[in-house]
Amino acid sequence: MSRISYEEQAKQNVNKLLDYASRRLYLDDYDRVYAQNALLDALKLTEPYDGQLKPYEFYQVMDQLSDYAVRKKIIDEHEKLNFETKLIGMVMPAPSKVVEMFDDIAAYNGAEAALNMLFKLGEDSAYLRRPDLDKNIIWEHDDNKRGKIIVTINLSKPEKTPEQVRLAKLAKGGYPKCMLCAENLGWAGNAAKPARQTLRTIPFELDGEKWFLQFSPYQYFDQHVIAISNEHRPMCVTEGTFRRMLDFVDMFPHYFIGSNAALPIVGGSILAHDHYQGGKKVLPVFGRPERRTFVSLKYGNIKISVVDWYNSIVRLEGADRSSLIKCVNAFAKAWDEYSDQSVDILCCTQQDGERVQHNAITPIASKNERGEYQFNLILRNNRTDEKHPYGIFHPAEELHNIKQEAIGIIEVMGLFILPGRLARECEQIKDILTGKTPLDLRSIAGDDHPLHKHLGMISQLAVDHGTSCTESQAENGITAYINTACERILDTTAVFKNDEKGQQAFDKFINSVI
Ligand SMILES: [Zn+2]
Fold first, then answer.
1. Domains of the chain, each with CATH number or no CATH
2. Distance from the CA of 472 to the center of ligand 1, in angstroms?
3. What is the pLDDT of residues 455-479, one digit of tens each?
4. Bridge-partner residues for 139, per DSSP?
5. pTM of the full predicted structure?
6. 184 CA to middle of ligand 1, Å?
7. Contact indicator for 126, 62 with CB cutoff of 8 Å
8. Ligand 1 centroid distance, CA of 179 (Å)
9. Are 202 and 118 in contact (CB under 8 A)?
C-alpha cells in the first residue's frame, strides 16, 4: 500500500477533528460546515476529505495537523502548540454558549455539576493538557505527627525567582497586560504567552464587582481554579477581599478560595493582577485540627483557634457572615500593624524615609463540615536583613536547590510545587548514590557544574547512604531528603515558631485582637 500524501492525511485529520468536536466539544451539526471551512482555510486546503475515518487519537491528530502547517510554511516550528490551540478554538462553542451551558446545568443540577462540565470541556479541548499534566511527579509525605505534605515536581512550568516576580509587578504595557487579564479569552498567543482560543471562563459578581473564573492550566491539585478580577489591578488584601471570598464559597460551597499575600517573597508569582486560587478542599491544611482555641468577649459567636500546622494560622469559624467579616478584618488590620521584637517580627521598616510594609496575610475561605464559614488566616512577613538576605521567614540559600521561588498560598497550605529541573537532577544524583557516576565533590563544587547547587545535598546523602545504593535505596534517600527540606521550608515560613516562646508570642498577638 502506498503512503498517503501529507495533504490527504491533513484532510483526513480535519475530518477527525470535526468528528471529535461533534462528540466531545459540543460542535452543533449546523456549525459543522462553518467550522470545516475555517479549518480548511487555516491549513490552506482546498477541499474536505469524503471517505471513511479510521480510529484516531486526538493529540496525535493535532500533532500531525500542526506538523503539516510547519511543512507548508504556514507556521514556524515553535508556533505548533499555539496553532493547535487555534484550530481547536475553531470547533469549540463560543464563550457565551459555554456560559449558557454552565448556567443551565447549575440551575438544574447545581454548581458542582456545572464545574464538572467546564472541567471536562477543559480536558477534552486540550486547554488542560492531560498528557502533560500526567508527567508531573507526585507523592505524599506523612510523618503522622505534623500533618501530611504533598510534593509535586512540575514538569510543565519554568521556575520564577522572587526578583523576576518583583519585576513582573513593575512591568506595564503590552496586550493582554498579563496572563490573567480578561482579554486573554481567544487571544492568539505569542512566544512569551500561550494561545487562549480554548479558554472558557465563567463570569459572576463578587461583592458587586465583576469577576470571572477559569481552571488553572497547571492543575496543581484537583479542579484548581483561579478567580480573577475583570480589572487589571494589583493584588491587594482588604476587607472587600474577605467579602468577595464569602460570596465565592456561597456560590461554590465545595471549593475553597484563597488569596496570596500582596507582597513579594511571600506572595504568588503574579502580583500585578488581583486574583484568588481555589478548588477542591484537598490541600493538607484542611485536614488539620486546631491546636488550641480562644474565648473572646468581642467575637462571642466566632470560634477562634490556632491550627496545628507548620506555619502560623489563625482559624476563624462562624455561621454569621457579618460578625465573621468583622473578626477577620480585625485580625488582618491588627497583623498589619503588629510587631514583636522578641520573635523578630517587625511589621514595617523605614527605607529612604518611606514605610516599607512587611507583615501580610494569606486568607483562605471555605465552608467547614458544619456548613459554617471558615477562614484560615496565614500570617506572613517578608522582611530581610543582613543575615537573611532572602527573607527572615523565607528558606535560606541552603534550601534553594529544592525551591527558590516565593513560597505562596499553595505551598503554605502543604502542597509543594517543585521545579521540573529537579526530576532531571535527582536522576543524576541517584547515579552518584548507586555508583554509576563516580562521586567527585571537588568537581561538583565548581560553579559551572550542573549539580553545583546540590553540593550540600549530595554530600549529606553520600554520608548517610554511601555510594553503592540499590536504585530504590537511592530513590528513597533522595525522596526523604526532599521531604525534610519541604518541612524545613514550611517551618521557616512560620512567623511564630512552634516552640514555647513562639507559641506564647502567638497567643499574645491573638489576645491583643480579641
Ligand atoms: Zn491582568
1. 6-92 (no CATH), 97-125 (no CATH), 133-417+495-513 (3.30.428), 418-492 (no CATH)
2. 45
3. 999 999 999 999 999 999 999 999 9
4. 151
5. 0.92
6. 9
7. yes
8. 6
9. yes
